[in-house]
Fold this protein.
Amino acid sequence: MRGEPLPTKEGIVLRAISGGCTVDSDGRLVHCTLRGNLKKQFQYTTSQSFARRVTRAKLPHDLDVVAVGDRVRFSETRHGVGVIEEVLPRRTRFSRTGFRGREQTLVCNIDQLVIVFACAEPRLDPWKLDRFLVAAEAQDLEPLIVANKRDLVHEEEFRSQFAEYGSLGYRVVPTSAREEQGIDVLRQALAGRVSAFVGPSGVGKSSLLNVIQPGLNLRTSEIGHVTYKGRHTTTAAQLIPLRTGGWVADTPGPRQLELLDLDREELAFCFPEFRPMLGGCRFDNCRHEAEPGCAVKAAVEEGRISARRYESFRILAAEADAGQGARLPRPV
């Protein structure tokens, strides 16, 4: 009968670009557009005397309506084109700051954040790795550190770079996409889970995925041998179904990862080695800087907290105090 709503199906968003997205519905790929109402935020009348009605509709410039990893309900026309009617609530999300401070949700509904850095070419930047770990902790995502290009350094250098993170309880998986080292371990860590590969450009995220699942043919490129910085080969996030079960998202490598708008105490909690000391300071509002009786500072002086990691906290805390971090929503 004309006018009756079309039946809806459920699926997961594999790619999302301006104007549409690709949805996987039980193994079938459907190109979908957004229902117009989903693109707008509505303001309603508040009077108790009259029926509720829309007074204003505007585009939500500060958030992504649909992103890779979203579970959606969509209707399908007889021409095979889908229309997304509803975006289901997100369990988790991983976001960064985009154009003009706008939040860009790279991927959502993931179980673990696979943070890929290289042992060399480009050499590990521990300060940048700290940022990714804090982002994972703040958004309640399980981090897995992948130390790629392991074949380019000796054992002693590898340990000097990554042993600190293993001592903090983070799992570190050494790999080499070129030599196919550690691939079985990484493949097992991904099986049956929804994961997102993140990290700087040039560390080999796409190369690893090509080895983990032959036939993907994700685009890769060599790093610059003058600056040893990677070139962006992944320009948009995409969700890839794995033959071993589960999904993995390949994401663009940001030059600088902006963090959530955290206060100092929340930021300190994102450093797991700080947690046993939190609440043990003389002052409840301790900034963990120069205050007397600071339990965190005492742990640094006694060697129970790494001086480098403490300095990393101070840098991030100074950015937070200055309002330089991205003002993103709290974790869902």
